[in-house]
Amino acid sequence: YKFRDLTIEELKHVNKTYPNFTFSMNTYTFKDGSQKDLLNFSGTVPVKYGNSYNIPIHLWILDSHPFAPPICFLKPTANMGISVGKHVDARGRIYLPYLQNWSHPKSTVLGLIKEMVAKFEEELPLYSVSSSDAARQSELLSYIAKITEGETDMKSKAKIGGGKNEGCLNKITIVGAGDLGIACVLAVAAKVAADKVVLLDLSEGAAKGGTMDLEIFALPNVEISKDFSASADSKVVVLTVNSLGNAQTYLDVIQSNVDLFRGIIPAISHYSQNSVLLVASHPVEIMTYVSWKLSAFPKSRVLGVGANLDAERFQYILTNLLKAQVLAKDAWIIGEQGEDKVPSWTHCNLVANQTEAMAARNSRETVANRAMEVLKGKGQRSWSVGLSVADLADSVLKDKRKVHSVSVLAKGCCNINSEVFLSLPCVLGASGVIEMVKLEEDPAVQEKLQSSAGSIHDLQQQLKL
C-alpha cells in the first residue's frame, strides 16, 4: 500500500465503529484481467426500513487508498435476493454519489458507510426469498461470489459498467486547468486527435477564468470535471499541473510538485490502468520519473514532453531558414529540457575519406550552431507547448509510429546507469514508446547527456517519494 499509515489509521476507526467487520487479504481481478492482493472487509450495517435489517457488505480497499475510493459490493446470504436499483446493480455492485465524488481527506470509509446506510434506508437493496427460490438463488449467489472476490467475467463487466464512457474510442484526459491545461484542450480539440477530451480542474472553488470560458462556449466533446472518475478509460492522460506553493529553494519547488503528484497519479492510474501518461509539468524529467514510480506503469507508457517542441523547431529552422534539408532530416534536440539541451543526429553521412568527413562535420556543426542561436530566441509559451502535446497525443491515439524527441527512461543509453529520464528520439504508437532510435556516436554529446543524468539523479535522491 502506497499510503500504508493513512490506510491503517482509517481502518482502525472503521473497526472501532463496526467491530463485527472481518478483515483479510485476497486477490482482486480488475476488468483488464490484472490482479492485485488487496485488503478487504466484510460485515453488516444496520438499516431501518420499517423494521431493522442488517445489510451484509463487502468492501475492497485499493492500494492507492485513501486517494481512490473502495470498491463496494453487497454480500447477500442464500435467503436474500438483490433489489436492482439506482445504487445497486444485478451483481450487487454498489454505486453511490459519495464514491463518485471521493476526495481525500474529506472522504472516509466511515462517511461512505454512513451514506450507504442512508441510501439503503430510502431503497432497501435486498429482499427475502422463499425456500422454493433458495436453490436458484444459491446458483446466482455463487456467481456473485466470484464477482465480489474478483471480477472474472470481463465481458459481462464491460457490458454492465460501460456507463458514460461506452463507445468512446479515443479519450484524452488533461489534468490541470491552468493556462497550459487549457492550451492543451484547445490544441487537442483543433487537431481532432480525440473523440472526447476531459479537463480535470483540481483547483479549489468554482470554475474561474479559462475554465469558465470553456464552459460558456461549450466545445464539442470537451467535459470539465473535478472528479477523477471522469478520466476513466482514457488512452492518454496529460499532466500539466504545477504546485503554486511558497517554496524557497529549487528543491522545495520540486518536492512541492512531488507531493501534488502523490495525490494525483494513484487515482489516475486506478481509473485508466492501460493509459499512456504524458507529463508536461516542470521539471519534466523529474516529474516523469515521479509519475513512473507512483503509477507502477511500464516504462514504455510513461513519457514526458521533453524536447519535442525544440526538436520540431530545430528541424524547421534547418529546413526553411537555413535551407539545410539534408541535415534536418536526421537532426534532433535531445537531453535535458532548457539550457542543457543538445543537438544530435540519428545518422552519420558516409564520405570517401577522413579529410572529407572532418569537413562535413565542421560544416554541419556550423549550421547547427546557427540553428541553435535562432532556437534560443523562441520561448515556450503555453499555446506552443499545447500544440506539442497535441502532436504527441495524436501519434499515440492514431498509432502513427512517428519519431519524437520525448523524455524516456535513459538507463542503459550512452553509458547512463541511473534511473533518470532524458529526451531521446523514440517511435511512438498506441502502447507508448515502441522503440528508441539509435543516435550517432558522438563523445561530446554523450558527455553532456551523462552530465545531465548525474545532476538529475542527485536531485531525485533528495526527494521524498
UniProtKB/TrEMBL annotation:
The organism of origin for this protein: Trogon melanurus (Black-tailed trogon)
Entry-linked Gene3D superfamilies: Lactate dehydrogenase/glycoside hydrolase, family 4, C-terminal (3.90.110.10), NAD(P)-binding Rossmann-like Domain (3.40.50.720), Ubiquitin Conjugating Enzyme (3.10.110.10)
Ranges for domain UEV: 1-130
Catalytic activity: (S)-lactate + NAD(+) = pyruvate + NADH + H(+)
Gene Ontology terms, MF aspect: L-lactate dehydrogenase (NAD+) activity
Function: Interconverts simultaneously and stereospecifically pyruvate and lactate with concomitant interconversion of NADH and NAD(+).
Domain of life where this protein originates: Eukaryota
Matches recorded under SUPFAM superfamilies: LDH C-terminal domain-like, NAD(P)-binding Rossmann-fold domains, UBC-like
Name by which UniProt lists this protein: UEVLD enzyme
Pfam families recorded: Ldh_1_C, Ldh_1_N, UEV
Any one GO BP annotation for this protein: lactate metabolic process
CDD domains, sorted: UEV_TSG101-like
